[in-house]
Amino acid sequence: MAAAESRLMALLSRSAPPLDPSAPLLDAREVAVEIGGKRILHAADLRVAAGELVAIVGPNGAGKSTFARAVAGLQRTSGGSVRWSGVDVGQLPGRRLAQLRAFVPQRSRVPDGVTVREAVRIGRSPHIKPLGRMMQADHEAVERAIARAGVERFAERKLTTLSGGELQRVQVAVGLAQEAPLLMADEPTSHLDLGATATLAKLLRGLTSDGLAVILVVHDLSLAAAVADRVVVIASGRSVASGPPADVLVRERLAEVWQVDAALETRPDGHTALHVAWLGRQERQSEAFAAEGAAADPPA
Ligand SMILES: Nc1ncnc2c1ncn2[C@@H]1O[C@H](COP(=O)(O)OP(=O)(O)OP(=O)(O)O)[C@@H](O)[C@H]1O
């Protein structure tokens, strides 16, 4: 047998090592990523267990999406380790990985001519055998995902005709149809209005009540504080803090990482708010001085 042929046979027959149910669902340590010879991610850690919702937060360009893609096995790493139920991500063939985690991307290519229902069916494909057909259970999973993400109303519409918020909910439905034990979503609320954001927050929390794990990359810190069991802060390509939102999103850290004067308020009834000095103390003072000056100046 030619060498290339035997390599192909080995690849096709490659079976992944068995998962270790006692290991964390996801255990990522000191993950580093280089793109085009440039270090994008230096060292980021993330551990997630079943039933947990972990929010990844951090400033623009900090490396959150790169980290999420790296742990999902969608981005080559240059250092550290990523293990899913004890197995190195590099040893998990694509279909196997797709049965462990669903990934809802921040942006995705919208193919021409595909309806919402067809897109959600594609999300179910990791469960369909190669050259196989969808079974009754697969159709049911697709309909469940469509209903749970609240996209029934436009299920027959073409993806290209949807608004940004509608498309985002469809992407969540595509992820849900995968019925993986962990759902990762990169900024799934960036186009959603207040009500749709609250609905999605309840949906994600509901998944954890069903024993699933959720990783949410999100900018809205008050939302992160409301829904997450833990937050991981990424700054300049490193995870710099991890823990319960009230412990991590403290005033000093908000000032250090986001350079804003802000404080998170978490009330016992579950309401959260981020109080931000939007214009900063100095600007507000100088504005006050300007106003005082204008009042003192006699009209010309
Ligand atoms: N393919 C690429 N080529 C070059 N640079 C890249 C590439 N992908 C990401 N980067 C850079 O890596 C850094 C981290 O990007 P990433 O998208 O992970 O940040 P982020 O924290 O998710 O940002 P945001 O909150 O703005 O979405 C950014 O400076 C980005 O420009």
From TrEMBL:
ABC transporter domain ranges (all copies) = 26-261
UniProt feature coiled coil, ranges: none
What GO terms are given for molecular function? ATP binding; ATP hydrolysis activity
**Pfam families attached to this UniProt entry:** ABC_tran (PF00005)
Q: Per UniProt, which keywords does this protein have?
A: ATP-binding, Nucleotide-binding, Translocase, Transport
Q: Which PANTHER family match?
A: HEMIN IMPORT ATP-BINDING PROTEIN HMUV
Q: What is this protein called?
A: Iron complex transport system ATP-binding protein
